[in-house]
Amino acid sequence: MAYPSQLGFQDAASPIMEELLHFHDHALMAAFLISTMVLYIIALMMSTKLTNTNAMDAQEIEMVWTIMPAIILIVIALPSLRILYLMDEIADPHLTVKAIGHQWYWSYEFTDYDSLLFDSYMLPTQDLEPGQFRLLEVDNRMVVPMEAPIRMLISAEDVIHSWAVPAMGIKTDAIPGRLNQTTFIALRPGVFYGQCSEICGANHSFMPIVIEASPLSNFETWSSSMLNS
């Protein structure tokens, strides 16, 4: 989860988030180099007394400031398109989970099981146990096996919501009457927090998302206990 005064992204917990972090660093370096060059040219022009009356007709300068931006855009666009295609790739998921947004909670349905469905409400502050996070903890976490491709089907019952988990690199709109799809793989065990990222009403800030990634044996134990409860 995020921590106070955090400047960067959360640590990546999925391959897609790792790719997004690498692309962010790549694009940030390009922006830094462009800004440095522009500031250097501005400072140079303001500090020199030399003039060139032919600068307005210099074909070389015209070619440079036309070709260089094109090259920069290509260098940034190609990795971006690659990540977009990776995010759309869904091949043989091991588990499918349907998340439905409500005002103001999430409900989950594990479609590979006949009757594994539950609602997930935010825990009130007075019910939190030591170590749990205010406004982020829920009564029923979405437990998934680690190192397994998980397909998410996301929709809403009333208004537009958004199912977002930053550590997984997921942010998918939940739209009434429409079924959106995304996928993720949890690379390590842990608890990962998210929140609704679409302003959906008065209690928009009180419908968190919690994913608990665990080894397969633990997931099977949890699913059996949920089915028997």
Automatic annotation (TrEMBL):
Species annotation: Proteus anguinus (Olm)
Protein name per UniProt: Cytochrome c oxidase subunit 2
Membrane spanning stretches: 27-46, 67-87
GO molecular function, one term: oxidoreductase activity
Co-factor binding comment: Binds a copper A center.
InterPro entries per record: CcO_II, CcO_II-like_C, CcO_II_C, Copper_CuA, Cupredoxin, Cyt_c_oxidase_su2, Cyt_c_oxidase_su2_TM_dom, Cyt_c_oxidase_su2_TM_sf
Alphabetically ordered keywords of this record: Copper, Electron transport, Magnesium, Membrane, Metal-binding, Mitochondrion, Mitochondrion inner membrane, Respiratory chain, Translocase, Transmembrane, Transmembrane helix, Transport
UniProt-annotated location(s): Mitochondrion inner membrane
SUPFAM superfamilies registered for this protein in UniProt: Cupredoxins (SSF49503), Cytochrome c oxidase subunit II-like, transmembrane region (SSF81464)
Domain Cytochrome oxidase subunit II transmembrane region profile: start-end pairs: 1-91
This protein's GO CC annotations: mitochondrial inner membrane
Function: Component of the cytochrome c oxidase, the last enzyme in the mitochondrial electron transport chain which drives oxidative phosphorylation. The respiratory chain contains 3 multisubunit complexes succinate dehydrogenase (complex II, CII), ubiquinol-cytochrome c oxidoreductase (cytochrome b-c1 complex, complex III, CIII) and cytochrome c oxidase (complex IV, CIV), that cooperate to transfer electrons derived from NADH and succinate to molecular oxygen, creating an electrochemical gradient over the inner membrane that drives transmembrane transport and the ATP synthase.
